[in-house]
Amino acid sequence: MSILLTNGPKNHPPIRHLSPMTFLQPFILLALPLIALPILIHLINQNRHRTIPWAATMFLLQAKRMARGMARLRYILIMLARMLTVAGLIFAISRPMSGGWLGLTTSGAPELTVIILDRSVSMEEEDPKSGRSKRATAIEKLGSVLKDLGRNTRIVLFDSATGARHDLDSSDALSELPEAGRTSTSADIPALMQAATEYIVTNEAGRTDIWICSDLRQSDWNPSGGRWESVREQLRNRDGVRLYLLTYQDSAPDNLSVSVSGVHRRETIEGAELVMDLKLTRATPTSDPIRVPVTFVIGGARSTFDLELTGNQLIRNGHSIPIDRESRRGWGRVELSRDANSSDNVFVFVFAEPAIQKTVIVSDDSQVAELLRLAAVTPSDRGLIYEAQVVPTSQAAVIEWDKTAFVLWQAPLPTDVVAKQLESFVGMGGCVMFFPPDVSTDAQLFGTHWGQWQEPQEADHFALSRWKTDADLLSNTLSGAPLPVGQVIAYRSCEVVNEQATTLAQLEKGPSLLLRAPTDQGAVWFCSTLPTTEYSNFVSNGITFYVMIQRAVARGAAALGEARQYDCGTLKSSVTDAWVPLDELSGSVLLSQRPIHNGLYETPEAAFALNRPLAEDAVEVLSDGTLEQVLNGLNYTRIDDKAGSTMALASEVWRTFLILMIIALMAEALLCVPEKVMTAVEEKSIRRETPTQTNPFPKKASVIS
Q1: Are 273 and 318 in contact, with CB atoms under 8 Å apart?
Q2: Which residue has better confidence, 20 or 630?
Q3: Higher model confidence: residue 271 or residue 368?
Q4: 408 and 268 part of one domain
Q5: pLDDT at 363 over 90
Q6: pLDDT digits (tens, 9 = 90+) for 444-476
Q7: What is the span of the domain harbouring residue 684?
């Protein structure tokens, strides 16, 4: 375990140093000046007796001068031992905490402790020796820290699976809470940080510690999103808030994940078959081919195939499995052998007669509408039926929403009943992509509104500066090859205003090209330019534009028909309560936990498959430089831990100080023995030399060299 404390003031590079020790009762340290008490007593004791010269003791004084150097050293050591005894007692009473290299704070227990727990699939990676996952290790470490902090701190947990806030009664509740268990979801760390920051500000909390337990996956942190700036601004201006990162960024090199897509039933001469695209991903590439047994479970019947994987990915497009001709609707599961993370070894699916891939284009511009229609209706899968319908804005209210997979909207944002219809459509899993109107208005939808049209100032076009390749519409292909997104240019672009949105593509020295607005279900994208030649080169560079549209169509169609696929964490439990499990594994999941776990369910109308978001299969983590940019200007302590680690983050060490105090007392006693022996010898010698019949000195006088 390693500790890094970063203090990043504005416009300055972070400073790294080790953090100090923690004291749960820091006010006791105000008694540290009492360490000087032995010195004070010594000075007082020196002036307590009168010194009287005595000729008969001259030989003793002469002998003591010869040994004065050793005696002075012994006196200094005795004084130091007494001072250490007092210091050890003070430190023990102040209840110091430490653990490895960790010191949390010097100002006592916080008033509020906020925990942001990453419960994504990647956090379920386990240590092969102990069998404990990253998430379980983090919970155990945090539980011990919170227990040592005592009952004076309020504990609040923000759950990454649901985004909900949970108030904990005690530190023990963290490990027992169902909302801290494993899930099949991803995490939205900036959204959780924003919710935690708003909670702190709203409740006017005093001393606050924020703990983020995460494996720093880029897909979960979204470092380019606009929400981080809001979080940084609020935390910079707030005193008494400290941030701790408990990170688990190491990955098992041989971990495998599996997923399937495009599952549909197809009639053949012999009967019927299931066709799907199969993808295997390895955490690190391998130069030598390795054999991977892959098991398919179709309606309870199992079959296993051995596949050879070289590099870090294996793609099998159009993989087919024979099924009974009478099987019009059913379910299946693909499985891998157990490895470091069993949560990404299973992918479930349902099949039925494929739904029509229907797209509705809402636009009053015939040229734009035709280009959008061509991109949507050109089939990417010959086994599916594609339809596209162009509707003017005046007839948008009569769209058959329940039969529509995807809506392309190039018109001013609606504010009337159509706006509510669009929100309901997205809430049922539908997808919408908005293109800017000719003239911007103040209308707002999905937390977003159009700004002003912009043109480049220093060149004749906007070039792309960055885009997301790990997930969403512009991600790399199944084979890992990137799309030619970098060739896209825009001659005019309209500003998209939404601080909560995720930027998928950013124009250099211009607005974002493509954003995704946050939604509970479905998907909403905003594209800031148009496909016509006077606005962009979308048509001449048709691959990127076509793939972007087709991926959106496929996502919307996944929520149509009798076989529907959903990502875990995108549905509410009220939606899944009436579903009937299709297999034993799904039947063992609690009703409240269904939306966040893999599962197979059905209703009389359709069958449903819930799976982890595929972005969780990406292994890219934040670099140190990117993390510093995300948390620029914030004081944070980074603790790099590993799954299964037994090293405590912090524990009370007052016993150590008590032991040191006892050792100091014993040393002081041993050092005082020669002094007492010498004093006894001197007194005996004085009694021999002194006449008993005459004593010119008072009884209270003493001979002191």
Answers
A1: no
A2: 630
A3: 368
A4: no
A5: yes
A6: 999 999 999 998 888 888 998 888 887 788 888
A7: 25-43+71-94+661-689
Q: 643 and 497 in one domain?
A: no
Q: DSSP string of 584-603?
A: HHHHTS-GGGGGGS-EEEE-
Give 511's DSSP letter. -
Which range has the top average pLDDT, 30-34, 45-49, 255-259, 680-684? 255-259
Answer with the residue of higher pLDDT: 15 or 249.
249
Please write the tens of the pLDDT for every residue from 33-79: 877 777 777 777 766 656 666 655 665 555 555 556 666 777 778 77
Distance between CA atoms of residues 434 and 413, nearest Å:
8
Q: Are residues 375 and 516 in the same domain?
A: yes
Query: What's the chain's length in residues?
Result: 705
**Helix (H) or strand (E) run with residue 555 in it:** helix 542-557
- The answer on pLDDT for 178 being more than 70 is yes
Residue 407, classed as helix, strand or coil, is strand
Residue 343 located in a structural domain: yes
In a domain, 331, yes or no: yes
Distance CA 308, CA 31 (A): 70
In order of 88, 505, 658, 661, the CA distances from 655 in angstroms are: 10, 57, 5, 10
Rounded to the nearest 10 degrees, how much is the dihedral formed by the CA atoms of 572, 577, 580, 585? 70
Q: Which residues contact 346 (CB under 8 A, 6 or more apart)?
A: 258, 333, 334, 335, 336, 598
Residue 434 — φ and ψ, nearest 5°?
Answer: -100, 140
CA distance 179 to 553: 34
Average pLDDT over residues 531-545: 90
Three-state SS string over 157-204 comes to: EEECCCCCEEEECCCCHHHHCHHHCCCCECCCHHHHHHHHHHHHHHCC
**DSSP notation for 114-131:** EEEE--BGGGG-B-TTT-
Residue 200 maps to which CATH number?
3.40.50.410
Give the CA-trace dihedral at 599, 600, 603, 605, to 10 degrees: 120
293 pLDDT more than 80: yes
Any idea which residue has 């759950």 for tokens?
159
The tally of domains found in the chain comes to 4
Report the distance separating Cα 350 and Cα 125, nearest Å. 27
Percentage of the chain beyond pLDDT 70 is: 84
Judge whether 113 and 154 are in contact, CB under 8 Å. Answer: yes
In a domain, 151, yes or no: yes
CATH of the domain at 363: 3.40.50.880
- Cα 535 from Cα 184, distance rounded (Å): 41
C-beta of residue 185 within 8 angstroms of C-beta of residue 223 = no
